[in-house]
Amino acid sequence: MSIDRVREYLKAFHLEDRVREFSQSSATVELAAQAAGVEPARIAKTLSFRDADGCLLLVDAGDARVDNKRFRDAFGLKAKMLSPDEALALTGHPVGGVCPFAVGPKAKVFLDESLRRFDTVLPAAGNDQSAVTLTPEELFSASKAQGWVNACKDWRAEEE
Hints:
Helix content: 25-40%
């Protein structure tokens, strides 16, 4: 199971005990927030996009939306999401549980600036009934992110 791979993967960072499993779905931001008892903005959603070498995973806050211009500026390509089958093949996780941990070798992880305003955030942990509570710094380290980007909109108090 994908969640077992994630839990095993997180052991190297001493974070496996932070994985939470729910009796209800956490496949969407709203459902995950309800299950975890947090505001939706703190859900760190992992979006999977096609790139020339496989895929890139963009982890952003639950209240943020991808801004096409910022995405293109950050990555040099148009934001084209993977199909559910492609996401599973390239990340190793099913849609609803896609996360930045224990991913396939063709998946590159980036974190959006929208996450930095929180003390803790909750990305999925490999299935659609899980989450893991991490600081943004722990998320950066455990996801082996390639960097922070500014690719989203609608989360700032005043939009640029």
